[in-house]
């Protein structure tokens, strides 16, 4: 009784009116919604659903914060919070001060939305909800409004549910009323206290469990998104480095190559950790969270390595000065490339007479893709020439054309490489058939039930291989698998020397098959990277690692090397299948960028979105928006250029320059650096 009375008195004291607290810029702790005042009540899931819809429809991520008041709200509270949490190009932060009735909407300077679109979101969706104290509805309406304008649609009017004017003071009421109510319910509280407490504990435990699971998923999603962005940045960095080496030589670009190698090592380690999350081993929630945090740490480290070389690389290339010479050189490549595209298309048609659709799937559309990329290059060069004639900056379209031409070359090169690999696989298939026939002859002298079953499987695979020369890589891989099962049951009757000799023979075919499969997956992902998520990239990275192990172990342990090569082939096949599915989903989804990006499956999304004139670069530099990070999906990330737009972020958060915009009644103030900060009142 005494304990309950004290508790009741404490509750009275706690419920007394308190002054609203000004909040300093906060650490989101990996959360997408932070509610310090209880504004959402039981509508948190509704808000999270809206944030998910926004990301699924546009690739944009909305973070929402509710506080009493902004500490230091004279200028840029939301920007400061965004910078502290490393938000990037496709990340939006809505901060609402419920007691002060202020809000700030912080966006990156390079977000693929116009000021007019943001004004519509604020005027039609956000402010009407806030004026009616519909705190959760304001977040939902903002998310839906951003999704609409990103798809070129009008902002929908919100369905408003009026709420309390100041949720932070929800429990404040007069002392006399508090005391009367406290005395009236004290006796009843004694009766129900234990039951209510037990129910509350169980409910709270369930809520904590669900919240922990949600945090774990969000942490993994963020880690995956950052990993995708770094992988894109490295790919584009290597391409830009190639341009620089061709112009200035390897000596002048050595430091940049070292930076890429260092960053690539960290990204490779991160992909290995990601593979642990994707494999069949069950880690504890704590272990999975630790792995995700380590992935984020590695990505941030790679980011810092690349960022340290940014200014020096921009100074080296200086496309602003090089554009008058570069543009004619690039223009001279258009006609030979058109001729090469026509030749490649004819080559693919002829190859269809020798190989089946599955064998050619990885490069089947490359000639058409190259033609689309060449169209972008031509358009960019036309714009560059016009700018040079007008005396304005041509660096942006010149770089877009240079990258597009390199992508076209890569697509066409991939066709030739893939066809050569198929020809080699067809030649090696005959050797694999002969090897399996020899195994079957040897197996006939040691008949057991297990051997009999393995012999049957091998004979069936052999028959399919003889008929499968139109898909030689797949036929050889199936034959190798059947032969491996036969070898396994015959190992006991062979000497170690015989087993090593057989593995050495089979390893040649297995490694060649793995190289072909890994190359096909890598080419597909590289040239469509804006549409491909973390899963396919992780499998590709692991396939590349397994293939390297197979090549390294070949001389010392051919049996182990054979297993690595076969695993590499399986992983590469999985990577290619997942990447094609990602590409198909991306192409089917609406995108705010120009239609060419959708046609190319994300191939050059980062060129088609970006600055106000349509290039991911606003003249003066060659990777604008990158300076302070930029690791969200669709960002202009990485030392040498940016990742493709729209798909890859996986709702990651990242660093980058930002801007804040307020509502219809706002005062503009410069906050310095690369941000502007404007506040709105409601």
Number of strands: 10
Report helical residue fraction: 55-70%
Residues in β-strands, percent: 5-15%
- Compute the separation of the termini in Å: 47 Å
Please work out how many helical segments DSSP would assign. 21
Structural class: mainly alpha
Q: In angstroms, what is the radius of gyration?
A: 30 Å
Main pleated-sheet profile: 6 strands, mixed
Low-confidence stretches: 1-18, 593-614, 616-676
Tertiary shape: globular
In a few lines, what is going on in this structure?
The chain is mainly alpha-helical and 682 residues long. The chain is 64% helix and 6% strand.
Q: What would you note in describing this structure?
A:
The structure is a single chain. With 682 residues, this protein is mainly alpha-helical. It has 21 helices and ten strands. The chain has helices at residues 2-15, 44-58, 77-84, 115-131, 135-150, 175-248, 254-278, 285-307, 310-317, 319-331, 334-351, 357-360, 366-390, 395-443, 449-466, 472-490, 496-527, 534-553, 558-588, 595-599, 605-608; strands at residues 22-23, 33-35, 61-67, 69-70, 91-97, 102-108, 658-661, 668-670, 676-678, 680-681. The strands form three sheets. Strands 2, 3, 5, 6, 7 and 10 form a six-stranded mixed beta sheet that branches. It has a two-stranded parallel ribbon with strand order 1-4. The longest helix is centred in the first third of the chain and has 74 residues, at 175-248.
């Amino acid at each position: 009784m005494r304990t309950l009375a004290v508790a009741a008195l404490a509750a009275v004291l706690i419920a007394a009116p308190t002054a609203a607290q000004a909040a300093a810029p906060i650490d989101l702790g990996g959360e997408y919604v932070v509610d310090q005042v209880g504004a959402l009540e039981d509508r948190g899931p509704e808000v999270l659903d809206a944030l998910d819809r926004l990301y699924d429809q546009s690739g944009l991520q909305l973070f929402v914060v509710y506080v009493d008041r902004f500490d230091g709200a004279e200028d840029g509270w939301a920007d400061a919070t965004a910078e502290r949490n490393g938000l990037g190009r496709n990340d939006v932060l809505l901060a609402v001060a419920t007691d002060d009735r202020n809000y700030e909407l912080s966006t990156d300077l390079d977000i693929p939305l116009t000021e007019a679109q943001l004004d519509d979101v604020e005027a039609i969706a956000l402010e009407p909800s806030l004026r009616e104290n519909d705190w959760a509805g304001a977040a939902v309406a903002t998310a839906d409004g951003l999704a609409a304008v990103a798809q070129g649609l009008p902002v929908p009017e919100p369905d408003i549910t009026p709420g309390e004017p100041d949720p932070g003071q929800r429990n404040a009421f007069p002392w006399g009323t508090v005391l009367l109510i406290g005395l009236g319910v004290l006796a009843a509280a004694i009766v129900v206290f234990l039951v209510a407490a037990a129910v509350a504990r169980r409910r709270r435990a369930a809520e904590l469990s669900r919240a922990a699971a949600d945090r774990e998923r969000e942490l993994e999603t963020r880690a995956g998104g950052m990993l995708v962005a770094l992988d894109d940045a490295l790919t584009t960095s290597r391409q830009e480095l190639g341009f620089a080496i061709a112009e200035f030589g390897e000596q002048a670009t050595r430091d940049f190559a070292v930076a890429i190698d260092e960053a690539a090592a960290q990204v490779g380690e991160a992909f290995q950790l990601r593979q642990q999350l994707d494999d069949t081993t069950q880690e504890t929630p704590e272990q999975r969270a630790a792995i995700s945090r380590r992935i984020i740490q590695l990505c941030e480290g790679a980011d810092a390595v690349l960022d340290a070389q940014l200014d020096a690389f921009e100074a080296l290339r200086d496309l602003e000065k090089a554009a008058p010479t570069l543009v004619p050189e690039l223009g001279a490549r258009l006609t030979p490339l058109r001729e090469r595209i026509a030749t490649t298309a004819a080559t693919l048609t002829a190859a269809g007479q020798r190989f089946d659709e599955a064998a050619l799937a990885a490069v089947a559309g490359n000639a058409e893709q190259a033609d689309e990329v060449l169209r972008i290059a031509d358009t960019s060069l036309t714009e560059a020439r016009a700018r040079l004639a007008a005396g304005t900056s041509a660096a942006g379209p010149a770089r877009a054309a240079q990258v597009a031409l390199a992508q076209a070359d890569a697509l066409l090169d991939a066709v030739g490489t893939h066809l050569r690999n198929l020809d080699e696989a067809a030649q090696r298939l005959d050797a694999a058939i002969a090897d399996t026939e020899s195994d079957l002859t040897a197996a006939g002298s040691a008949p057991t039930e297990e051997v009999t079953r393995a012999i049957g499987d091998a004979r069936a695979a052999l028959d399919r291989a003889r008929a499968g020369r139109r898909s030689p890589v797949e036929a050889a891989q199936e034959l190798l698998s059947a032969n491996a099962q036969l070898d396994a049951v015959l190992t006991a009757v062979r000497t170690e020397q015989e087993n090593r000799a057989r593995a050495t023979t089979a390893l040649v075919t297995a490694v060649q098959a793995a190289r072909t499969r890994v190359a096909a997956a890598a080419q597909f992902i590289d040239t469509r990277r804006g549409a491909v998520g973390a899963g396919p990239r992780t499998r590709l990275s692991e396939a590349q690692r397994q293939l390297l192990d197979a090549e390294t172990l070949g001389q010392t342990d051919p049996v182990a090397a054979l297993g690595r090569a076969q695993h590499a082939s399986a992983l590469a096949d999985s990577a290619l299948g997942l990447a094609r599915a990602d590409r198909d989903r991306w192409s089917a989804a609406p995108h705010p960028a120009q239609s060419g990006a959708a046609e190319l499956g994300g191939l050059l999304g980062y060129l088609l979105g970006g600055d106000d004139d349509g290039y991911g670069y606003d003249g003066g530099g060659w990777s604008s928006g990158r300076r302070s990070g930029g690791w969200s999906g669709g960002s202009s990330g990485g030392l040498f250029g940016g990742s493709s737009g729209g798909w890859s972020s996986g709702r990651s958060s990242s660093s980058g320059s930002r801007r804040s915009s307020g509502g219809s009644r706002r005062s503009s103030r410069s906050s310095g650096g690369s941000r502007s900060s404007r506040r709105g009142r409601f």
